C-alpha cells in the first residue's frame, strides 16, 4: 500500500518509541526492535533473577492502539487503529463465521469490508456530545500489526471527544486499549483495561 494517510512518527507502536500512559505515572511499554513482540519477558526475568522453578511460557499481551487527530484545515477527525493481525483475524472470524487471512492480497477488498464493519461496531465517537459517523479510508499491514484508517467529516472545531472503545473485547478478556487524542496540537492519552470501554478527552 502507498504511504499512510495519517502520520505515525509519534505513534505508540512506532519503532523505538516509549509509550507513557497519562494518569498511570509509569512507562507502560517500550518497543526495542523493529518488530512487535507479543510476549512479556517478566516471567523469564523473574526466574533468571531468583533462580526459582522451571521457566513457564510468558503471558501474552493483548493490546490495541487508537489514535484520533483533529485536522482543522480539512475539518476532519482522522482515526487510526492498530491491532495485532492474528488477534484481529480471530475477532473477524468470530464475527463473520468464516476463515479470515489478512495476508491474502486477493481477499483484500473482502477483508477491508470486514474490518470496516468490525471497527465501526466496536469504536464509537462523540464530538462535543454529538455522535459522529466513521468513514472507512483503508487498511494496511505493518510487521505483526494491521492499521485501519477512518475519518469523520465536517468537524471544523472540537473541544471534547468521547470514545466508546471495546475493540477485541469480544475475543479477549485481557485486552488493553491505548488511546491518543490530539486537538490543537495538544496530545492526551489514556489506557482502558477490559472491561473498561469509555473515555473522554477535553481540550
Structure, described:
This protein has 203 residues and is of the alpha+beta class. The protein has a domain at 62-202. Helices cover 18% and strands 38% of the residues. The protein is built from 3 helices and 12 strands; from the N terminus they run ββαββααββββββββ. It has helices spanning 42-50, 85-96, 108-122; strands spanning 18-21, 26-30, 63-71, 76-84, 123-127, 130-131, 135-142, 145-152, 160-165, 176-183, 186-193, 198-202. The strands form 3 sheets. The protein has a 6-stranded mixed sheet. Strands 6-5-9-12 form a 4-stranded antiparallel sheet. It has a two-stranded antiparallel sheet with strand order 1-2. Strand 1 (18-21) and strand 2 form a beta hairpin. Mean pLDDT is 80; it is low at 8-59.
Q: Structural class of the secondary structure composition?
A: alpha+beta
> How would you state the average pLDDT, rounded?
80
Q: Number of helical runs?
A: 3
In helices, the fraction of residues equals 10-25%
The proportion of strand residues reads 35-45%
Biggest sheet: strand arrangement = 7-8-4-3-10-11
Largest beta-sheet characterization? 6 strands, mixed
Order of helices and strands: EEHEEHHEEEEEEEE
Radius of gyration: 18 Å
Oligomer: single chain
Q: Please mark out the parts with pLDDT under 50 across 5 or more consecutive residues, or reply none.
A: 8-59
Shape summary: globular
Number of strands: 12
> Kindly, what is the distance between the CA atoms of the first and last residues, rounded to a whole number of angstroms?
34 Å
Amino acid at each position: 500500500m502507498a504511504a499512510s494517510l495519517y502520520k505515525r512518527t509519534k505513534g505508540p507502536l512506532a519503532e523505538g518509541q516509549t509509550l507513557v500512559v497519562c494518569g498511570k505515572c509509569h512507562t507502560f511499554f517500550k518497543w526495542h526492535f523493529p518488530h512487535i513482540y507479543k510476549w512479556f519477558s517478566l516471567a523469564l526475568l523473574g526466574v533468571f533473577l531468583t533462580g526459582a522453578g522451571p521457566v513457564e511460557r510468558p503471558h501474552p499481551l493483548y493490546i490495541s492502539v487508537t489514535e484520533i487527530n483533529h485536522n482543522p484545515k480539512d475539518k476532519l477527525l482522522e482515526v487510526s487503529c492498530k491491532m495485532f493481525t492474528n488477534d484481529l483475524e480471530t475477532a473477524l472470524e468470530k464475527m463473520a463465521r468464516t476463515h479470515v487471512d489478512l495476508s491474502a492480497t486477493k481477499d483484500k477488498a473482502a477483508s477491508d469490508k470486514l474490518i470496516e464493519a468490525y471497527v465501526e461496531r466496536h469504536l464509537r465517537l462523540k464530538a462535543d456530545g454529538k455522535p459522529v459517523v466513521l468513514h472507512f479510508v483503508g487498511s494496511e499491514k505493518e510487521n505483526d500489526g494491521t492499521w485501519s484508517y477512518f475519518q469523520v467529516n465536517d468537524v471544523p472545531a472540537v473541544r471534547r471527544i468521547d470514545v466508546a472503545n471495546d475493540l477485541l473485547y469480544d475475543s479477549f478478556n485481557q485486552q488493553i486499549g491505548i488511546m491518543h487524542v490530539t486537538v490543537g496540537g495538544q496530545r492526551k492519552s489514556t489506557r482502558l483495561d477490559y472491561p473498561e470501554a469509555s473515555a473522554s478527552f477535553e481540550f
